[in-house]
């Protein structure tokens, strides 16, 4: 009597394991917040005055960050990194939309945003809400910000993280400020495999 | 005062002498750069590396392109970024202090015209030593394009003869 050949079974087990891993516990470099109710409808103007809703970006993964143009450090670094992410994604970059919303709409006029945000990448869209809309959207996306007037200058404190939304507009991954472009690009690729 | 040109065209090194007496302090300001601005943007950051042979304090910075210049510190507090003005910035002896994204920067406020890539902007730095003597030096900081990652600059700037 021969011993049964186990190798086909091992192959099946290995495949099952792989499938299970990819469909059930897709690991992101950022924090998986898909189960949380973060985000929601934008319904704010872009820098050319067009009202923007999440449905406008249906079918694309969305990267969204918040900031202000007078920011010398964190905001341009983030926008530079987003440009790097698109570069890493190659042809898939066409399936991604980068959104950048100001938390300082009083100083960040539409004209200024139109000059500033596309300077990093012409495909980036700047969003600018009224004060009330800014409160609404930042609250929904769990972004903290505070505008302080100090000694004749304006100091803007704000959350440095962003989010990755899937192609249906659902917030899936929280992207910490310390994440590299490579890590973010990997998460975008994972999201593009899904809905 | 002696000026030495760095290896790359834009890298300027300003070397100055704090006192002509026995203790000669040499301050080197290397790789200065300013983040470019677009029309309507009245504030931006300037970055550089400062090294001194004697402990000094950077007291103030001025520039003809800005109404006001401050030394700022960037802090992250539970994921929230904030910038805060500092009275001065300590430069320890023989230890480089990098003013770079993620730490300190020189904040240019009330910039009336857009600063475009390739332009050179004078920055005058004033230091004070522990005896209270002040010295100042002026560097020409090149403006980098908004869409150029600072990392690209550092790679060149670290080259030494």
Structural class, judged by helices and strands of chain A?
alpha+beta
CATH architecture of chain B: Sandwich
Q: Helices and strands of chain A, in N-to-C order?
A: HEEEEHEHEHEEEEH
Q: Estimate percent helicity of chain B.
A: under 10%
Main sheet of chain A? 8 strands, mixed
Most extensive chain contact?
A: A-B, 33 and 32 residues
Q: Give the overall form of chain A.
A: globular
CATH fold topology of chain A:
Glutaredoxin
- At CATH level 2, the architecture of chain A is 3-Layer(aba) Sandwich
| Total DSSP helices of chain B | 1
Q: Descriptors for this entry?
A:
heterodimer, A: 195 residues, alpha+beta, Glutaredoxin, eight-stranded mixed beta sheet, 35% helix, globular, B: 161 residues, mainly beta, Immunoglobulin-like, twelve-stranded mixed beta sheet, 5% helix
Overview of the molecule:
The complex is a heterodimer of chains A (195) and B (161). Chain A has 195 residues and is of the alpha+beta class. Chain A has one domain: Glutaredoxin. Chain A is 35% helix and 24% strand. Chain A is built from 5 helices and 10 strands, in the order H-E-E-E-E-H-E-H-E-H-E-E-E-E-H. Chain A has helices at 7-24, 74-89, 110-120, 131-140, 181-193; strands at 31-32, 44-46, 51-52, 61-67, 96-102, 125-128, 145-150, 153-159, 162-165, 171-175. Chain A has an 8-stranded mixed β-sheet with strand order 1-10-9-4-5-6-2-3. In chain A, strands 7-8 form a two-stranded antiparallel ribbon. Chain A is globular and about 50 Å long. In chain B, strands 1, 2, 3, 4, 5, 6, 7, 8, 9, 10, 11 and 12 form a 12-stranded mixed β-sheet that branches. Chain B has 1 helix and 12 strands. The A-B interface holds A 69-74, 76-77, 80, 83-84, 109, 111-112, 115-116, 119-121, 144, 150-153, 155-161, 176-177 and B 35, 38-45, 68, 70, 72, 74, 76, 79-85, 101-102, 105, 107, 109, 145-150. Strand 8 of chain A pairs antiparallel with strand 7 (80-86) of chain B, so a sheet runs across the interface.
């Amino acid at each position: 009597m021969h011993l049964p050949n186990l190798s086909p079974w091992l192959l099946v087990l290995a495949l099952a394991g792989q499938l299970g891993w990819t469909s059930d516990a897709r690991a992101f470099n950022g924090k998986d917040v898909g189960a949380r109710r973060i985000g929601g409808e934008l319904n704010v103007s872009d820098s050319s005055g067009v009202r923007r809703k999440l449905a406008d970006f249906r079918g694309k993964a969305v990267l969204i960050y918040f900031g202000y143009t007078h920011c010398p450090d964190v905001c341009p670094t983030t926008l530079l990194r987003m440009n790097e992410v698109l570069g890493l994604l190659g042809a898939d970059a066409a399936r991604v939309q980068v959104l950048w919303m100001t938390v300082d709409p009083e100083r960040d006029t539409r004209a200024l945003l139109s000059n500033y945000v596309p300077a990093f990448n012409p495909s980036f869209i700047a969003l600018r809400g009224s004060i009330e809309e800014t409160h609404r959207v930042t609250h929904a996306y769990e972004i903290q910000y505070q505008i302080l007037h100090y000694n004749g200058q304006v100091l803007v404190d704000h959350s440095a993280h962003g989010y990755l939304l899937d192609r249906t507009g659902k917030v899936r991954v929280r992207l910490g400020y310390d994440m590299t472009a490579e890590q973010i690009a990997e998460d975008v690729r994972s999201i593009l495999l899904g809905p | 005062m002696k000026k030495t040109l760095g290896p790359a065209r834009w890298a300027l090194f300003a070397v100055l002498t704090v006192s002509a007496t026995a203790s000669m302090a040499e301050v080197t300001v290397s790789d200065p750069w300013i983040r470019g601005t677009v029309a309507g943007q009245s504030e931006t950051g300037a970055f550089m590396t400062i090294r001194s042979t004697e402990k000094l304090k950077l007291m103030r910075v001025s520039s003809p392109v800005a109404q006001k210049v401050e030394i700022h510190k960037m802090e992250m507090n539970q994921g929230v970024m904030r910038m805060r003005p500092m009275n001065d910035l300590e430069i320890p002896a023989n230890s480089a202090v990098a003013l770079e994204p993620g730490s300190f920067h020189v904040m240019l406020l009330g910039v009336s015209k857009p600063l475009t890539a390739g332009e050179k902007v004078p920055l005058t730095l004033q230091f004070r030593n522990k005896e209270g003597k002040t010295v100042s030096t002026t560097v020409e900081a090149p403006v980098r394009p908004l869409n150029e990652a600072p990392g690209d600059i550092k790679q060149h700037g670290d080259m030494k003869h």
